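# step 3/5: fold
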Amino acid sequence: QGNLQESGGGLVRPGGSLRLSCVASRAITSVFNPSMLAWYRQVPGKERELVASISSDGSTEYAESVKGRFTISRDNSRKRVYLQMSGLAPEDTALYYCHRKLDGREFWGQGTQVTVSP
């Protein structure tokens, strides 16, 4: 039930937008719906950092560096979580990971690369 698959990464110019998507293809609805979902990112040589999270009731939190530019959302009927990113800057370049947590169990996707470059 832990399989998470990200998509939507790519190369974008500064100021551009991307929408990341993550599907929990093997999670059943009764497990997915109450899960805390999040996006993390990591660059080589640095620790993985939390970008945004969304709880089962839709409450969201964002890293200060992305507030006002990124929006996290979820679609329980499709078992998906999204990250809409706008105003992208080179410092947003990273491998972005989808994360699901429920009852102390955590699951990670393989990551999708986002590169912001002129």
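# step 4/5: annotate
The chain has a mean pLDDT of 95.
# step 5/5: archive (pending)
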